[in-house]
Amino acid sequence: MSHITQSVWVAGASGLVGRALLQELLRTPLQVHALVRKPIAELESSPRLRQHRVDLRRADLGGPLPPAHALYICLGSTIAQAGSREAFHAVDHDAVLNVARAARVLGVRRCAVVSALGADRHSAVFYNRVKGEMEESLRGLGFERLVIARPSLLDGERAALGQPSRLAERCTLALLRPLSGLIPARWRPVRAQRVARAMMLALSQRGPAVQVLESAELQTLGAS
């Protein structure tokens, strides 16, 4: 058995991209630490996967965590799911920053995060503005390498993961899937597995301090 020398954190392991990311990471020799709000029985069973219960509202996440060399953040919600704009901001901005800051305190130097197509802190659209503010806040933490993934509509089966249904997303996917070959790659729904693979590959490579992967790049890089 190969000796495990490196470990990673994954925040948001219960979501579409987070679950796909776990599957990909567990094919490597890495030790994977899933940061969860409550234990998730459905996560993959592996001696190299540990769940750590954290409080995403706290700057220290509620307690000591093992060191890691890289961090993957796949946290995300919708305004409808969160219940209010304030609650959405608390998840998609504040919780993301709490995880990232806690990682930096422990010396983590590489980070990949799931954002969204159209993220822009100056956007008139609240969702896109929060995502843009989150990106800007992460840039200020001084990661040696920060990979920002901006997928278009995520394609995957949330029900199979025990996630709440997103009616608008489900209806849009039903309409777009048959037409995917006709839709430009930037706007085409992207499979969660492709996003996960692209994030892993980009973070493992040399590159600029901040690299933004738009959805078309995620489609291409994640297909390899």
UniProtKB/TrEMBL annotation:
Pfam families documented for this protein: NAD_binding_10
Coiled coil: none
InterPro entries associated with the record: NAD(P)-bd_dom (IPR016040), NAD(P)-bd_dom_sf (IPR036291)
Domain NAD(P)-binding: 12-134
PANTHER family according to UniProt: OXIDOREDUCTASE HTATIP2 (PTHR14097:SF7)
Protein name as annotated: NAD(P)H-binding protein
UniProt organism field: Paucibacter sediminis
UniProt lineage: Bacteria, Pseudomonadati, Pseudomonadota, Betaproteobacteria, Burkholderiales
